[in-house]
């Protein structure tokens, strides 16, 4: 396939980065006002800095993808246990649900750890800028419509890559014929030569 999986992954990564560029640009503006070397590194993260990180993480929905981990695990574990004792389906289901509910508060641990990661990378002002943008109308639209834009971009890039490869192949084979006294390259090396018929 001309449009390889690695190219597709690269474009997805680029599209993801594009989603974050507006926030990063705003954060850079805030960072320009700071002294060099004052990046948010180190273990001492103030409460206000951590709060700003939590707001940014919430604004960009950074951890939403993890919401289904506990429910999915509960469903899988129920299935495994019920397969062993189908006669105890209700008791097993209730038992696993109770255990899952007991573990649910640990979701906050993930939020805190992710906020700390962001706080180590971004300054408090940068995080406030990120949260401000992504809670604005434009930021919310970017988050909501970003996947649609990414799909469209991947489709456009795939069409473009097919066309550019086709045209390059045609131009190269035409020039080869000129260099080769009008004879087309042998078709065995890389598929049939364009216009060889």
Give a structural overview:
With 197 residues, this protein is mainly alpha-helical. The chain folds into two domains: 1-33 and 145-183; 45-135, no CATH class. The chain contains seven helices and no strands. The protein has helices spanning 5-32, 47-59, 69-84, 89-103, 107-121, 124-134, 137-179. The longest helix has 43 residues, at 137-179. The model is unreliable at 11-42 (pLDDT under 50).
Query: What is the quaternary state of this protein?
Result: single chain
Radius of gyration: 27 Å
Order of helices and strands: HHHHHHH
Question: Which class do the helix and strand fractions yield?
Answer: mainly alpha
Q: How many extended strands?
A: 0
Task: Name the overall outline.
Answer: flat
Can you describe this structure in just a few lines?
By secondary structure, the chain is mainly alpha-helical.
């Amino acid at each position: 396939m001309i449009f390889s999986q690695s190219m597709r992954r690269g474009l997805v990564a680029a599209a993801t980065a594009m989603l974050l560029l507006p926030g990063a640009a705003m954060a850079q503006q805030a960072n320009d006002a700071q002294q060099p070397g004052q990046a948010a590194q180190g273990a001492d993260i103030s409460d206000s800095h951590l709060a700003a990180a939590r707001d940014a993480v919430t604004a960009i929905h950074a951890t939403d993808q993890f919401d289904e981990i506990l429910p999915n695990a509960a469903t899988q574990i129920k299935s495994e246990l019920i397969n062993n004792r189908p006669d105890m389906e209700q008791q097993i289901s209730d038992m696993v649900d109770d255990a899952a509910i007991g573990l649910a508060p640990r979701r906050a641990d993930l939020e805190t750890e992710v906020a700390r990661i962001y706080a180590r990378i971004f300054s408090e002002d940068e995080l406030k800028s990120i949260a401000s943008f992504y809670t604005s109308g434009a930021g919310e639209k970017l988050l909501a419509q970003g996947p649609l834009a990414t799909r469209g971009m991947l489709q456009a890039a795939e069409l473009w890559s097919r066309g550019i490869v086709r045209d390059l192949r045609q131009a190269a084979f035409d020039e080869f014929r000129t260099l080769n006294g009008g004879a087309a390259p042998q078709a065995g090396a890389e598929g049939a030569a364009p216009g060889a018929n």
